[in-house]
Amino acid sequence: MTDDTRLRATVPTITELSDKGAIVLVLAHFGRPKGVPSPDLSLAQITKPYEAVLGRPVRYIDWEGDTANVAMLQPGDIAVLENTRFFGGEEKNDPAVVERFAALGDLYVNDAFSAAHRAHASTEGLARRLPAFAGRAMEAELVALQKALGEPEHPVAAVVGGAKVSTKLDVLKHLVTKVDHLIIGGGMANTFLAARGVNVGKSLCEHDLTGTADEILDAADRANCTVHLPYDVVVAKEFKANPPTRTVNVHEVAADEMILDVGPAAVESLGDVLKNCRTLVWNGPLGAFETSPFDKATVALAKTAAALTIGGTLVSVAGGGDTVAALNHAGVADDFTFVSTAGGAFLEWMEGRELPGVSALLQ
């Protein structure tokens, strides 16, 4: 195990149940074995790391003889069951697999928001088979998301970055109906700039989606959502660490240059936008933050958001793998109101879609 973030997230729920005398059986998946058991994907290897995180013993139980092994556990014991995806029917929500899981317990607790967008046997089927509850991590996630887009305090801003518009079309279409300010960064901003007639040179740009970008901009106008695109940018002729760069107006990008970050004037203006907002949802970096010096805009705006959060004027919720990495890089992840480690589930929530693992808990 190289990252114990998700193990640590379950500690409050697991210890609370154990302390109250429950026998705690942990269901989880690892990798994509597609129903074929593999030693490399066995959850036996997480028992020691999990013991270290929990500070108490953790048993491992294989699916062979699972009922008998579970029957030997005592109140307060904690056990990790083998990878649920070793069952071919797990991802198909097979009723037989649901019954196999249900036979081992009396109550179901889902503490994995990151898997809530999947209608699998261990995330959706089991929740409808046994009395079901949200764990403490799931509870915190849902409370934070409700504050961010469910019933937020306005004005609301959303930062959406990343490489391609095509991966976040549904997110953008949904957000323009929900937020007051939509800040678009990353490579996807280039597609919107191109839609507005800007020559973006060699920049990453989905020219075939400029029509779609126009539709989103029109929808934003109808919804009174202000879309913020960069008006100054950092450009270079090649994408590598610390190349020669220029900071220019977006209309001055040369044919052999590529946009790799938002410029300082635009970032300062975006900071002023956040100062007038009460709620912020963030998904994706503003520039190619993994490569210096194209991290400056993301770091600067993240620090502004963190300072406003600490000052009590902004509720800030962020999520997605690149976003978490960017906020950690900026050193402000702990200063946001809530940072979700979920990827697909966070995006589907931003799209306004129903999450099967959550809906099953609300039945």
Gist of the model:
One of its GO terms (molecular function) is phosphoglycerate kinase activity. The protein is α/β, with parallel strands linked by helices and 363 residues long.
Q: In the residues, how many domains can be counted?
A: 2
Principal-axis shape: elongated
Spatially, the strands of the biggest sheet line up as: 8-7-6-12-13-14
Biggest sheet descriptor = 6 strands, parallel
- Which fold name is given in CATH as the topology of the largest domain? Rossmann fold
- Give the amount of beta strand, in percent: 15-25%
Poorly predicted tracts of residues: none
Class per helix and strand makeup: alpha/beta
C-alpha end-to-end distance: 35 Å
Helix content: 25-40%
**How many helices does DSSP assign?**
15
Q: Overall mean pLDDT score?
A: 93
CATH-defined superfamily of the largest domain: Phosphoglycerate kinase, N-terminal domain
How big is the Rg?
Answer: 23 Å
Query: What series of H and E elements makes up the topology?
Result: HHEHEHEHEHEHEHEHHEEEEHEHEHEHH
Can you identify the CATH class of the largest domain? Alpha Beta
Beta-strand segment tally: 14
How would you characterize the overall build of this protein?
With 363 residues, this protein is α/β, with parallel strands linked by helices. It folds into 2 domains: 5-135, Phosphoglycerate kinase, N-terminal domain (Rossmann fold, 3-Layer(aba) Sandwich), CATH 3.40.50; 143-350, Rossmann fold. Helix content is 38%, strand content 15%. It is built from 15 helices and 14 strands. It has helices at 5-9, 11-19, 47-54, 66-71, 95-102, 121-129, 136-150, 169-175, 186-195, 210-222, 264-275, 296-310, 321-330, 344-350, 356-359; strands spanning 24-26, 59-61, 78-81, 108-110, 132-134, 156-160, 181-184, 226-228, 232-236, 245-249, 258-262, 279-283, 315-319, 338-340. The strands form 4 sheets. It has a 6-stranded parallel β-sheet, sandwiched between helices. Helix 5 packs across helix 6 (121-129) and helix 11 (264-275) runs parallel beside helix 12 (296-310). The chain starts with a helix and ends with a helix. The mean pLDDT is 93.
